[in-house]
């Protein structure tokens, strides 16, 4: 017969807090690495095509070049794209006003430093690496969340062939870096969640052993302090880096900060702590705020190092003509006051951005992929550039794999029932990330927005879909597992086939015009 003391052994606490141990073995690395190799091949092959700046590469790639040269973004002459691609960049000697933080452009600059600034490989390589590593992280995170090498491999494979992620990984824009840092931060918080629960189990079990039974009542009131949480600090650095790419990372920082505290509260409740809500705030929440927000803010500030140390960036000398007006402004160094005013201007710009664009889209349309973004399009007549028929098209369209994207949207709806009905914390986590990446944009209904913003949460859409596929495999019990697994594999096969079908319009291949139209299923995709 078990006794109350049996509930506070280290083994019992770990079972309640962490579940049964999962041992993926060698396959736990072989499968993720295999899908990562596939992702790398798809993202790196012909990365220099087309040999021209496409869509917003005209901003970020040229900004990256001047960061390498001057440490800050500089202005460029009008219509300079062809000259830049020809290997003869001639930036002006005046600072440029830019609205996005510099980290993403520094990362683009790393690829240019290695492969040169006169070819597409140079200005797209870092994006391709970030996209490829995202596939590896997704496979490992899914494997850990679902305790299945098989499901981890499916999640990695679906992201590896997903067209939206593929296009963004092959283009020198900022958003793939935001997506990577958000995903990596989530992975760090998963490791922190497990580490914190192990610490809680160890300390309660040690206290129980000293008492010869259950822990003392005083300890069960609020529970022990868990001390050093290195993975939470790593998450803070990664979230600060996400904000250093785009300030929309702030939404993920807020959601993740709240999420990790809720995880700690639940751990204390499961462990038998009486005042688990209050303890989650006093023993975990305050430190989580410092780790996530404080460390994140320090990391974000560090991404502005080039602007701070060079002295010639836009608005860098603002403080010299605007003396402090209040006592607290006297305590802030002049360069930081200039940076604060820079952010004030940036916030006003983002809030008031409402210029028209042919490929702008409303967030209401994103779940249905109503208006994907065309990054590149060239039409060719008979014989031109090797066109074998009357008319050919070469296009790069930020179009998601319809099978994966629409199934993922349905999966998000299913998560609501999994979270409310089964209290599945994984479903709650994915919904939180989805809210940070999707719902937050409804706060600015008049702002000009694009479908490619959704890349920030695309890996989590894949994880949500994989969670539902795992539930399908288990549906009906063990007797139906083989049949259900076949259904899951059939879905994956259809998704991969759809990627093969749409691949030409993701990579800019020349195809007959009729073949291009065959892939434009909606008039709004053109």
UniProtKB/TrEMBL annotation:
Bilayer topology term: Multi-pass membrane protein
Pfam families: PMT (PF02366), PMT_4TMC (PF16192)
Enzyme class: transferase
Main location: membrane
Location within or outside the cell: Cell membrane; Endomembrane system
Transmembrane regions listed in the UniProt entry: 26-45, 122-142, 148-166, 173-191, 233-265, 286-309, 403-420, 450-473, 485-506
Domain Protein O-mannosyl-transferase C-terminal four TM intervals: 341-525
Pathway noted in the entry: Protein modification; protein glycosylation
EC number: 2.4.1.-
Keywords, sorted A to Z: Cell membrane, Glycosyltransferase, Membrane, Transferase, Transmembrane, Transmembrane helix
Residue intervals of the ArnT-like N-terminal domain: 34-189
Function: Protein O-mannosyltransferase that catalyzes the transfer of a single mannose residue from a polyprenol phospho-mannosyl lipidic donor to the hydroxyl group of selected serine and threonine residues in acceptor proteins.
Entry's family note: Belongs to the glycosyltransferase 39 family.
Protein name, as recorded: Polyprenol-phosphate-mannose--protein mannosyltransferase
């Amino acid at each position: 017969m078990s006794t109350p003391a049996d509930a506070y052994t280290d083994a019992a606490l770990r079972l309640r807090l962490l579940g049964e141990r999962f041992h993926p073995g060698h396959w736990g690395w072989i499968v993720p690495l295999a899908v990562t190799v596939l992702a790398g091949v798809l993202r790196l092959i012909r990365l220099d095509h087309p040999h021209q700046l496409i869509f917003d590469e005209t901003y970020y790639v040229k900004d990256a070049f001047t960061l390498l040269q001057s440490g800050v973004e500089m202005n460029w002459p009008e219509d300079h794209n062809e000259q830049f691609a020809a290997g003869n960049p001639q930036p002006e000697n005046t600072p440029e006003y830019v609205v996005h933080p510099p980290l993403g452009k520094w990362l683009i600059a790393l690829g240019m430093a290695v492969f040169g600034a006169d070819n597409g490989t140079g200005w797209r390589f870092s994006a391709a690496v970030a996209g490829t590593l995202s596939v590896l992280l997704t496979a490992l995170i899914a494997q850990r969340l679902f305790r299945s090498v098989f499901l981890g491999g499916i999640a990695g494979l679906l992201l590896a062939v997903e067209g939206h992620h593929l296009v963004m990984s092959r283009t020198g824009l900022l958003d793939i870096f935001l997506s990577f840092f958000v995903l990596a931060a989530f992975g760090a918080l998963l490791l922190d969640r497990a580490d914190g629960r192990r610490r809680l189990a160890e300390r309660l079990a040690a206290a129980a052993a000293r008492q010869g039974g259950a822990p003392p009542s005083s300890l069960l009131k609020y529970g022990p302090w868990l001390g050093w949480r290195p993975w939470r600090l790593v998450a803070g650095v990664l979230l600060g880096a996400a904000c250093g790419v785009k300030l929309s990372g702030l939404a993920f920082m807020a959601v993740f900060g709240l999420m990790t505290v809720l995880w700690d509260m639940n751990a204390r409740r499961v462990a038998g702590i009486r005042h688990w809500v209050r303890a989650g705030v006093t023993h975990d929440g305050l430190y989580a705020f410092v780790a996530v927000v404080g460390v994140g803010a320090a990391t974000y500030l560090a991404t502005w190092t080039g602007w701070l140390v060079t002295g010639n960036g836009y608005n860098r000398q603002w403080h010299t003509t605007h003396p402090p007006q209040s006592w607290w402004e006297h305590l802030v160094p002049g360069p930081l006051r200039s940076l604060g005013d820079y952010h004030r201007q940036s916030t006003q710009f983002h809030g008031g951005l409402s210029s028209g664009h042919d490929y702008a889209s409303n967030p209401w349309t994103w779940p249905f992929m109503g208006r994907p973004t065309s990054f590149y399009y060239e039409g060719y007549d008979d014989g031109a550039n090797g066109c074998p028929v009357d008319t050919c098209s070469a296009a790069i369209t930020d179009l998601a794999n319809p099978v994966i994207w629409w199934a993922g949207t349905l999966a998000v709806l299913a998560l609501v029932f999994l979270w409310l009905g089964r209290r599945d914390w994984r479903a709650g986590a994915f919904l939180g990330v989805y809210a940070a990446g999707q719902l937050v944009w409804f706060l600015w209904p008049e702002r000009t927005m694009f479908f490619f913003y959704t890349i920030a949460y695309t890996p989590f859409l894949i994880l949500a879909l994989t969670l539902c596929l795992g539930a399908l495999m288990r549906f009906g019990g063990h007797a139906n597992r083989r049949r259900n697994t076949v259904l899951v594999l059939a879905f994956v096969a259809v998704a991969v086939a759809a990627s093969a079908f749409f691949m030409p319009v993701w990579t800019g291949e020349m195809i007959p015009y009729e073949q291009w139209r065959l892939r434009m299923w909606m008039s709004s995709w053109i």
